[in-house]
Design brief:
The protein has 153 residues and is an alpha+beta fold. Helices cover 25% and strands 18% of the residues. The longest helix is centred in the C-terminal third of the chain and has 16 residues, at 102-117.
């Protein structure tokens, strides 16, 4: 499972990448995603991303704990957006981790890890076609649509 982490602030992705590489369990799984050129008409491109290759469900607690600990060392406002392969995002901010006790930090890391392990939300139902059919190819018609792809912790 390829997970990407995007960090606000110039040079912060490099610092986070080095922090994660300091963890023996994550060291060989951390990579770099080159910055992309800005889209036409955009004022700038995306910042540098940090990529991790994890086995499904594996090392999510280690990753989450490392991100929480890194954010606790930051001055100013930082945000780390963790994106799963299905597009689901988990957002952790430095404001949300400042002043946490070690116990609370561990609980937050576990909540982040659970969000990373959670299955993708089901896709929203297909819109009706002009003949009244839904365009759906099976499945339960009572299944609710996805509640969004982002979770803030």
């Amino acid at each position: 499972m390829r997970i990407t982490l995007e960090v606000t602030g110039a040079g912060e992705a490099l610092d986070l990448r080095e922090w994660l590489r300091g963890d023996p369990e994550l060291r060989d799984r951390v990579g770099r995603v080159p910055a992309q050129a800005p889209e036409p008409g955009a004022m700038g491109g995306l910042g540098e991303l940090v990529a991790l290759l994890l086995e499904p469900g594996g090392l999510t607690v280690t990753l989450a704990a490392s991100v929480v600990a890194w954010l606790q060392t930051r001055k100013g406002s930082q945000t780390v957006t963790i994106t799963k392969p299905d597009g689901t995002q988990v957002v952790v901010t430095s404001e949300g981790v400042r002043g946490l006790t070690p116990e609370s930090s561990g609980e937050l890391a576990e909540r982040v890890a659970q969000a990373l392990r959670a299955p993708a939300p089901p896709p929203p139902p297909a819109p009706p076609t002009t003949d009244g059919a839904t365009g759906d190819r099976g499945g339960d018609a009572d299944t609710p649509g996805g509640a969004g792809t982002g979770e803030r912790v």
